[in-house]
Amino acid sequence: MEIFQLQTQICPRFEKAMNILSKRWAGLIIFQLLSGPQRFCAIESSLPNISGRLLSERLKDLEHEGIVRRDVYPETPVRIEYSLTDKGRALQGIFAELSAWSQEWVPFPDARNGCGIDAADE
Question: Closest Cα partner for 62 from 41, 31, 35?
Fold first, then answer.
């Protein structure tokens, strides 16, 4: 089955989707939220190289695009959780395929591949 056709122009919808997902950290934030709702500090600690300011900005971008939902719970102290919308959860298959592709084709520079598998076992 041929899914791709030779095109002279890139579809504007595809271009917009790529622009959304290719913003720095956006894909990793979405991937992290695929496991369920999380608080800001949990997302931040799972992505140790991101600054709080940039994480906040990217979450706002993804919320604006309708991919992430921000839920505020009026407790003391106030609890805020981020989760994926239906639109965001629809990316799960794409991220599963990308994860499988990375396991096969992306070399890891260390003795361990960072995914719980020893490089020697591969």
Answer: 31
Q: What is the pLDDT along the chain (122 residues), one digit of tens a residue?
A: 456 666 678 899 999 999 999 999 999 999 999 999 999 999 999 998 999 999 999 999 999 999 999 999 999 999 999 999 999 999 999 999 999 999 999 998 775 555 654 444 44
Q: Per the structure block, which two tokens stand in for 27?
A: 């894909």
Mode of pairing for the β-strands spanning 38-39 and 79-84:
antiparallel
Across the beta sheet with 38-39, the strand order is 38-39, 79-84, 68-73
- Domains in the chain: ranges and CATH: 13-91 (1.10.10.10)
